[in-house]
Amino acid sequence: VLGPQGVVQRLADWRKPTEGEGEFKMNINFMLPCSTLPPNVTWGNCNSSDANSDRTTYSGPMALCDQDDRENNEQYPCDPRHDGHFYAWQMYTDSRGKAVDDRNGTVNSSDTNWRQIATIYDYKDIKPGKWALYYLQGTPKNPDDRTYDRGATHVAFTGVTFQINGQGGIYSMTVSTAGKNSTNVNANFHTIVPANHISILWQIPQYVVITAAEILFSITGLEFSYSQAAPSMKSVVQALWLLTVAFGDLIILAIAAAALFSNMAVEMLAFAGAMVVVICVFILLSVFYYDYTFYTRDESEDDNDADVSGTVSTVE
């Protein structure tokens, strides 16, 4: 990132959002010195009486608030209790003593004239819409405390607004002054991964195939366990069949929890490969190694057969 304050280098995150709620992902490279902040922003590392305010960038909490909320209530534009309309970059220590910091560090100049060039805020998944960037006081979304209401959330407007409508994109937003001696705020976006251009409706055929396969597998499995079980064991064998489904789900959960794959596409291919192996094993068992048993008659039919055979023998 190149700005009036200097040059900043950081690794970009190219992993797309995975929450499945149509978000995009973005981070903030904040390069505004404290001297350019509104006078009411005196929290964090910025203080209006600080002699180094020209050489220090703001590194306190930040918030993105839905512009519709701002238009409805200009005095209190941010509502932390409105899910999907408020996102915060915060710093605090939780009840277990663990430090939570949504920043990826600060960047200082390497020359003898020390300056804090930028504060890098982590990537977050954001829902598409119209957004405004604010300086945030406190930790309104601390999970160990009650979420602030709108009136208790103190913010100051940075002057940055933007609108992103696409899903699945990854962006890096740089906030800086328009020039070295300027106090005007400038925001630039760098697109790391473009937004999705394939319609999500293309997932419908996939869901149809997956659903049909699940139904056919379940029905045929239940039919097999019922027809091949002895009359007195049908319920037990069907229960064991359902238990195998439960164990299969546990295997998937264990693999996901172990985080064996860094790439989700590779993980899905591994699951598909395992299914192919299981299919081949089932085919071999059904063709070469299993003798089918047919329990096609119930007890009443057996009794009738016994009566008929007895009558025939008496006549003889």
Automatic annotation (TrEMBL):
One of its GO terms (biological process) is peptide transport. One of its GO terms (cellular component) is membrane. The keyword Membrane applies. The keyword Endoplasmic reticulum does not apply. It is found in: Membrane. It is a multi-pass membrane protein. The chain crosses the membrane at residues 207-227, 239-262, 268-290. Keywords: Membrane, Peptide transport, Protein transport, Transmembrane, Transmembrane helix, Transport. Pfam families: PTR2. GO terms for molecular function: transmembrane transporter activity. Belongs to the major facilitator superfamily. Proton-dependent oligopeptide transporter (POT/PTR) (TC 2.A.17) family. PANTHER family: OLIGOPEPTIDE TRANSPORTER-RELATED. This is Uncharacterized protein. It comes from Plectus sambesii.
